[in-house]
Structures are given as structure tokens and as C-alpha cells.
Design goal:
alpha+beta; Mth169, Chain: A; three-stranded antiparallel beta sheet
């Protein structure tokens, strides 16, 4: 079983990497990019039958910093 975890900074948290990407895109001539938020994708190869609650626990204990980040889980 595979799962994909998407981790993003929460709204209102400054994203310096996103700002750098937005600035670089503008410098390269890509106009119209108002904002960029950068996150991370984590793909997990799990034993069949792993519960979504277990994956949530992984996220909250290690994969995401719950103070400044949020996450979504996709079962693939």
C-alpha cells in the first residue's frame, strides 16, 4: 500500500523559499505569479492494512511540524 503526504506551511506563516521562487520566476520573465507556497511531498510504502490513523500519527509526530505546517494524506 502506498500513501502520499503533502506538507505545507499554514496560512499566515512566512514562506521565504516560496518568496525566493516567486522572485526568481519574475526575474526570468514569468509575469503574473502573485505568490508561491513551497511544501514537501513524502511518499510512504506501507504494509497492507496500515490504518489512516497510523499515518496521521506519523505525520503529527515526525513528518510535519504541527505548529507551522499542515498536511493532507492520499492513499494511492
Amino acid at each position: 500500500m502506498k500513501a502520499r503526504v503533502n506538507v505545507m506551511l499554514k496560512n499566515g506563516v512566512l514562506d521565504p523559499q516560496g518568496a525566493a521562487v516567486r522572485h526568481a520566476l519574475g526575474a526570468m520573465g514569468f509575469d503574473g505569479v502573485n505568490d508561491v507556497r513551497q511544501g514537501k511531498v513524502i511518499e510512504l510504502d506501507l504494509a497492507d492494512g496500515t490504518s489512516e490513523d497510523t499515518i496521521k500519527s506519523m505525520c503529527e509526530k515526525l513528518l510535519a511540524n504541527m505548529v507551522i505546517e499542515s498536511y493532507t494524506i492520499e492513499i494511492l
